[in-house]
Amino acid sequence: MSRLIWPYYTCTFFRRQSQYGLQSWYRYFIPDSYASVGIWNSRLSNDIFRSISVRDHGLEILRKINSGKIVSPLDYDIFANKLDELDVMSLDFVEEVIMSYMNTQAAVDVRDSTSHAFIRGYLNFREVDRLLKLIESRSKTGIFVDFASAVLMMDVFLRKGEWNSAVAVSWELCLQEYFSLENVKPLVFATSLFSCIKSIENDSFLVKESQPEDDREIEQKLVPYVRNPNYDNFFDIKRPKLKTGYTLLHLSHVLNSRCSLFQTTPVWKSLSKHVDSFRLMMRIFGLALSEQCDKLLVEIRKVDESAIQLGGLDPTVSII
């Protein structure tokens, strides 16, 4: 792609969104009713929940684990659903319970609702950054996002302007191969795409790496063996730039194979006119940011005049 075309793509699509108020985007994306707070809180009216003290219940879980007894996934689920009785100062205690339970055999039967309850609890505590660290340490915590909790988390990060963190949440869905499912939710697609757009628009993935100190003392030790370095270019990805790129590739695949998902949405009338250009743009940026240069050159050669009409996209298409 020539030096003239690449800035055109960037300026006319990704960097054109500032003219639309950020708050109005969120109202379009995620209304306050999406969280269904009233319905979620009403579950605690059940007698099972009202008769249990979450702190005592958590201490009992730890006591059983330490004594080698079995704690059922149901008891663990009840603990997760009662977090609203605690305060933010109790999160160390909560995480002790989480880490301890994940080291038991019963952890293989943990319900999906348990992860959702923990995520809701941390969001209520306004500890979304701490929550993201727990999710990224999923092998130790067993907490995974679902599509609904992912949207709630991305919404919080987008409102705070933490674009890399919003992309990181979407990347967790990619790791679970959510975007390979047949019933991908348009709202999840839109929020994930918007996170990538804002990350690119603000160059937030350009994180400066700290330079090592030249004068630091290096200590050498003899060890029994040295583990060979391993990097699978997927589960081991840490850099925000790569997460943004690969997320865009997952999203472009959705647009390529399951356009029917969007035909019932209000934006389809505008999107359908430019879907090929839109998909190509997402793939080009995805390959560029994921540093797949060979595949990027192949895609660039496919660019023709019809694919460079992204400047004509109206604001509605940009939102989806």
Summarize the structure.
The protein is mostly helical and 320 residues long. 57% of the residues lie in helices and 0% in strands. It is found in: Mitochondrion.
What can you see in these coordinates?
By secondary structure, this protein is an all-alpha fold. 57% of the residues lie in helices and 0% in strands. The chain has 18 helices and no strands. The protein has helices at residues 5-14, 22-29, 37-42, 47-50, 54-66, 73-81, 91-102, 112-124, 128-136, 138-141, 147-160, 163-175, 186-201, 240-257, 268-271, 275-289, 293-301, 315-319. Mean pLDDT is 81; it is low at 1-28 and 305-320. It is found in: Mitochondrion. This is Mitochondrial 28S ribosomal protein S27. InterPro entries: mS27/PTCD2, Ribosomal_mS27. Its main location: mitochondrion.
| Beta-strand segment tally | 0
Q: In percent, how helical is the residue content?
A: 55-70%
Name the beta content range: under 5%
- Name the shape in a single word: globular
Protein name: Mitochondrial 28S ribosomal protein S27
Subcellular location: Mitochondrion
Main location: mitochondrion
GO cellular component, one term: mitochondrion
Layout: helices, strands, pairs:
Layout: H1 5-14, H2 22-29, H3 37-42, H4 47-50, H5 54-66, H6 73-81, H7 91-102, H8 112-124, H9 128-136, H10 138-141, H11 147-160, H12 163-175, H13 186-201, H14 240-257, H15 268-271, H16 275-289, H17 293-301, H18 315-319
GO cellular component, one term: mitochondrion
Subcellular location: Mitochondrion
Organism: Schistosoma rodhaini
